[in-house]
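Backbones bend. Our protein:
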Amino acid sequence: MANMTLFTDQDPESVYPSQDLIWGKFEQCFLALWGLVTYAPVFRDYYYQGLAQFYTDNVMYMEVRALLPEIYELDGSTHDTAWTLKTYQDITRQFTAEYPEFFGVRVIFTIHRGVNASKMARAVEEAMKLQRDFPDIMAGFDLVGREDSGRPLWYFRDALSLPAERGVTLPYFFHAGETDLEGTEVDQNLLDALLLNTSRIGHGFALLRHPVAKDLSRKRGVAVEVCPISNQVMKLVKDLRNHPAATLMSENHPLVISSDDPGMFGSSGLSYDFYEAFVGFGGMRSNLGSLKELAINSIRYSSLNPKQQEKALALWQRRWDNFVSENAF
């Protein structure tokens, strides 16, 4: 477990004194897990158990960032990204058949931001093909990995412009602004993400330092995916009362609460992050309405089409009404 998570029984401030050290450990954990979860039978079970854990936490719909890795069998054969995405689709259908109150999953195909321009172009080409072949489950495309040490979005501008040049719709959900390095190339990712018409902004921690980007994202209804525990664990902020999202929340900026990598952090599902957002961002003014608005935002700013959103909101409303009546607020 010590090799596969960031959780420690020691003082975390001593074990992880800097962002560089904790990011190094974080990426080592992914490498340790890689060969285990990319074995076909384990991959299927791993994904199913992930769905079960979120469902137990009362999550009814998910949008998952996935690298869509090459999956292997014990005879040495491997499966391509289309097989991997179809497996996500098949297991999601199996899970929703078993648990009808679970609304489903959509996948955001990702690639590590450390690749070169030609590899990024190939990934965007593949994403366009997957979007065409799997429109029900494929939500869009993103870059993952540490922004501070990865290449900025502008470096990949030619590859990321391919869909628009070809008249193809490929929604983007860019990680942008997960940094406290003000004034660097990476710090410009927020503006570039908006220029490239991102549907949401992953993390957006640096958004307050970019008033133009903040105003633009608000006017366009581009929600910030806030990951409270992740930002705290990865040492962007120590006290969540000082998190930029507290200001964004007070300004009614579009926000959704996300859990990033709960398994790595020793948490599960989404409740831990909702709790931290509730007490850390809203402070003494947080109330039941705060939770309700944040929950609705998860559907309002999802990649579901308007008809699907309407259906999901109706399902959510029934469960919300039961939650309120059962807890006698």
Summary: Residues 306-327 form the longest helix (22 residues).
